């Protein structure tokens, strides 16, 4: 019985880790556009593919091929050239593949039988022994910021079961092995590359029709060697292959009815970058909502609305605290102007699998309703409204007598440094000019409200302020790119050379304003504060 329960538990956990998309194991929030493009890509006769399972020698093979195609040019002479000649099929997507510099090689982690086939194209398959692949993939996998972290025992089970991003190692191995005799397929092992480097280079040169003389061979033996790459490639990969995760997230930004809504375009960035760092704020707001509900002496169903729910974290935090406190006599509703945000919220609600409570998500709130809600919550929304007075009046009208409005906002630009940095970077990249930070306090675009302004606005609309709470938000970032990824809809973010300009500018700001001397891959913290206002009708 115990083993059956364990098996059921593992199966349930598996279903929540990843999803199977067109037969490929995929991370749920990576998006589908680029993956589906890769499976239906119309190959060209001059295409050259490097087909590998993750951690099987992909980068090493890319460097050998690159050196052969560029007459022995080291990758670090022009890293932009290197990466633009080596796009990743299922990650970089249509635009990068169609505009790649040629001659080059298209990298893919799809199994060979799923890679679009053309008898005139060429395919280099690299395989590696499963033990080393498993250990290397485990380390690499847990460096990704947007996947469920796995201990090695659990990761090993997923590896054996073929339930990891990009699929089954053994299926990929079998698929490549079965095609080893095709005229346009070259099968190479990682172990061969280690022990018989010259022979492998000669085979590859012959396969892709490159004349290999002694001088070129000498360059490749040097510049495509493991030691040369290990010493120099890693730093460049951090700068450029950091786009690996960013591009798969960008693939979630697909056209829909509210594609013109910038907030909709920012949905995935907001979800990935900021929502986890705002959790103390959502926890505190939920705590006070729960206190209000617990004070209910009647058996009447409580009505709660979360306005501007975004990706759902505020309302789902309330739901989880209600379940923890066994409070089920509550009707939860949430609204947002972005369909993309609501879609994310509904997906997250589905994953919670709550048996006792659910949330009704809808696109627009009918502000004509009167005396409907016992509690309205709204997080980091009110100061951004074009007419915040009207929004407060609408809330007042919708609240029942003695109903509670729980609202949060930023108090002062200097107390939200991550926000000021993003604004300064965008300004700098758009105009080349730096913002005069002495004027931040008067910059209305920050939508910060001081205590005096807040009290005056609420009292003017008839509210009684019951509590005023300051919440500390540590805002830790694992690296500079994570903070900058909120700007991913900007053109410069997807241009490697311009991105480096932005990264250098943010390092300057962190150094001069925050006394943080950072490399791009170092973690840092930007302590911030938010205000929660609890007001009654």
From TrEMBL:
Where does the signal sequence lie? none
InterPro entries in the cross-refs: Methyltransf_12, P-loop_NTPase, SAM-dependent_MTases_sf, Sulfotransferase_dom
* Keyword Oxidoreductase tagged: no
Methyltransferase type domain: which residues?
Answer: 305-405
Provide the Sulfotransferase domain boundaries.
45-232
Domain of life here? Eukaryota
Q: Check the record and name the Pfam families matching this protein.
A: Methyltransf_12, Sulfotransfer_1
A GO molecular-function annotation: sulfotransferase activity
Keywords in alphabetical order, please. Answer: Transferase
- For the keyword Membrane, the answer is no
Q: Which family does it belong to?
A: Belongs to the sulfotransferase 1 family.
Q: What is this protein called?
A: Uncharacterized protein
């Amino acid at each position: 019985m115990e083993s059956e329960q364990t098996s059921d538990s593992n199966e349930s956990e598996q279903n929540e880790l990843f999803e199977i998309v067109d037969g490929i194991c995929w991370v749920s929030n990576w998006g589908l556009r680029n993956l589906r493009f890769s499976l239906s890509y119309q190959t060209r006769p001059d295409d050259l593919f490097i087909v590998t399972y993750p951690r099987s020698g992909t980068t090493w093979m890319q460097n050998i091929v690159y050196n052969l195609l560029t007459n022995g040019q080291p990758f670090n002479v022009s890293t932009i050239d290197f990466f633009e000649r080596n796009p990743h099929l299922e990650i970089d997507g249509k635009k990068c593949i169609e505009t790649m510099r040629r001659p080059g090689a298209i990298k893919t982690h799809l199994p060979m039988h799923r890679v679009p086939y053309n008898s005139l194209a060429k395919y280099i398959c690299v395989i590696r022994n499963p033990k080393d692949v498993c250990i290397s993939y485990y380390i690499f996998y847990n460096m990704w910021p947007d996947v469920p972290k796995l201990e090695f025992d659990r990761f090993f089970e997923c590896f054996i079961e073929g339930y990891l991003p990009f699929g089954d190692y053994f299926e990929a191995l079998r698929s490549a092995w079965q095609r080893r005799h095709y005229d346009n397929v070259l099968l190479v092992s990682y172990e061969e590359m280690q022990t018989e480097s010259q022979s492998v280079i000669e085979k590859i040169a012959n396969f892709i029709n490159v004349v290999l003389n002694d001088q070129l061979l000498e360059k490749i033996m040097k510049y495509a060697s493991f030691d040369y790459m290990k010493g120099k490639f890693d730093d460049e990969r951090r700068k450029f292959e950091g786009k690996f995760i960013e591009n798969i997230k960008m693939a979630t930004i697909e056209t829909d009815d509210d594609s013109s809504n910038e907030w909709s375009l920012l949905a995935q960035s907001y979800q990935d970058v900021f929502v986890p760092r705002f959790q103390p704020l959502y926890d505190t707001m939920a705590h006070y909502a729960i206190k209000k509900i617990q004070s209910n002496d009647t058996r009447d169903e409580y009505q709660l609305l979360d306005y501007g729910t975004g990706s759902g974290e505020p309302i789902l935090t309330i739901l989880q605290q209600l379940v923890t406190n066994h409070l089920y006599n509550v009707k939860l509703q949430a609204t947002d102007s972005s369909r993309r945000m609501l879609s994310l919220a509904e997906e997250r609600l589905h994953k919670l699998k709550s048996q006792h409570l659910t949330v009704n998500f809808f696109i627009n709130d009918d502000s004509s309703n009167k005396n409907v809600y016992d509690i309205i919550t709204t997080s980091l929304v009110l100061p951004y409204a074009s007419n915040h007075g009207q929004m407060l009046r609408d809330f007042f009208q919708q609240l029942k007598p003695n109903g509670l409005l729980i609202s949060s906002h930023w108090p002062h630009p200097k107390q939200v440094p991550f926000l000021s940095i993003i604004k300064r970077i965008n300004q700098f990249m758009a105009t080349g000019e730096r913002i005069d930070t002495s004027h931040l306090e008067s910059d209305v675009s920050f939508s910060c409200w001081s205590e005096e302004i807040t009290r005056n606005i609420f009292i003017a609309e008839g509210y009684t302020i019951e509590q005023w709470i300051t919440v500390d938000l540590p805002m830790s970032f694992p690296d500079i790119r994570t903070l900058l990824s909120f700007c991913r809809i900007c053109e410069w973010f997807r241009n490697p050379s311009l991105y480096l300009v932005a990264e250098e500018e943010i390092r300057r700001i962190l150094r001069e304003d925050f006394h943080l001397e950072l490399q791009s891959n170092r973690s840092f913290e930007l302590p911030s504060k938010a205000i929660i206002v609890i007001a009654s009708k």
